[in-house]
Amino acid sequence: MKKLFKYLGALLLVVVLLASAFFIHVWYFKPYDINLFFGRTALQFALQSPELLSSVRVLEKFGIDGHNEKLDDASLASGDEMFKNILAAHETLSSYQDEDLDTADKMSKDVMLSLLDIVVEGERFRFHNYPVNQLFGVQNGFPSFMESTHQINDLGDAEDYVSRLSKVGVKFDQVLEGLKHRENLGILPPQFVVTKVLEEMRNFVATPVEENILFEALANKMEKAGLQQSDQQLIAEQAQTTMEQTVYPAYQRLIEYFTALDVKVSENHGVWSLPDGDAFYALAIKFFTTTDYSPDYIHNFGLQEVSRIQSEILSILETEGWDISGGFTQSIENMAINPRFYYPDNQEGRDQILDDYKTILVDVQRQMSSHFHDIPAATVDVQRIPEFKEKTAPGAYYQGPAMDGSRPGVFYANLYDIKATPRYGMKTLAYHEGIPGHHYQVAIQRELKDMPFFRKMIPFTAYSEGWALYAERVAYEMGLLPDPYDNIGRLQAELFRAVRLVVDTGIHAKRWSREQAIDYMLANTGMAESDVVAEIERYFVMPGQALAYKVGMTKILELRQKAKDALGSQYDIRDFHRAVLNNGAVPLNILEQLVNQYIKEKQN
Hints:
By secondary structure, the protein is mostly helical. It is built from 25 helices and three strands.
């Protein structure tokens, strides 16, 4: 028996040594199998972002949760290391020969390369952004992350929450380091960004700690988790002290920097004003649309689409008895001011909006089988955008579900201005952010089987936003918008995305002013002014992103028509949707390959 144990011990040691050697080789050298490379690369980059790990929750089921007490490293040195790793990953991936790969692995290589290529190309523009901005800056991103993403299920999670609060000072100082570096490079934000983030941060620190979203979220999470009252009290005291001594002072240092910056910026220019700004914008277009379209092409296409969609809306208005002799702007304003289209401007009205959104999403799920084969397991919730940031936030946005099923997808609705939520636009917005739009697409992507992990997470904006806009059209085709005013809401949403093509290129390539862009969007959409201002200011800080929606939708519609024409009676829209969705987000050229493959398979 003793000999047997010795033999088993020696065998175990050999296995451990072999496994260690294999791991070391895979981790530090080129893996022999490209899928090992995909896994290694995804893990290496994920491990550099504890906030991402908390969001996707793939390690917790293995008992690994140390990342939940940390924040991302925002230092210049960390950024240097990240780009070094990206360059190394790009070199290794390029060394795998296409002829040695099967079809699936070749596609995964192409998907990853398409992203790494543009990141490598854009290294010189690494600092052409605004880490503190009115939309998704670190100053509002951190509270939102803690409120929406950091889970508390036990005392350890609550302690991790406080630990993260204690690290805000370090992270914000790292951000300040980057801001000062950008200033030295001549990269300063538009003036309105400075004004709005100062107002937001001053209001944030003026709020008593007990009423701050960070403190309230912690208290609510502990109560919901059923922690003992003594533990809740102790954690609350620690959080209050940490916020007073670390969090608020960190915000105050950002406030001091932006107060000094305020006298240095007086213009609201697009990125053309930044060093080599035209080349940066061209790359931004390439990144967000996965095309080589020029600003002029996109601008002119946008103008054509604006005219087409406005004509369709006017036709419906005329059919419904409206006087359209004053043209589109006057006609859409006449409709938009009708009080029957709005909820009461009070808390009850806002609560009803959220309830009605939820009802819309329940209703659409009952009818999905007519156009879709697959139903994801992840559910979706509707919540109000946190009030501390909704004044400058977009009209809505979506957050994907946790991969362990512990958190649903969330459609966040902006309820700041009640006039920005007309009843006739609500169905289309719910379809875009929820089902069959973002939630449906993201949930399917994250639940894909036999797919490299990075393919379940990688975002391509033209694909994802193109799909969500296309989903609005599909909902109409499913018969979910029988009311002509709801259809106007759908067309108005598409018009909004067409106008984006005009104003984004106008701001960044044609040097439009902020006011010129606001005036154009107001005249051509019929949107509430508060929404228009927030949108235009969004395009200033996210150049090129707004182009992805209409470009992506247009490509999907082109590919759908191609499949219809090629397959005739064999065409089934459910099969087409499965072909589009069941490989996750991809660049538009690869999406075309997937649809071509689907057509070929159906024909054989």
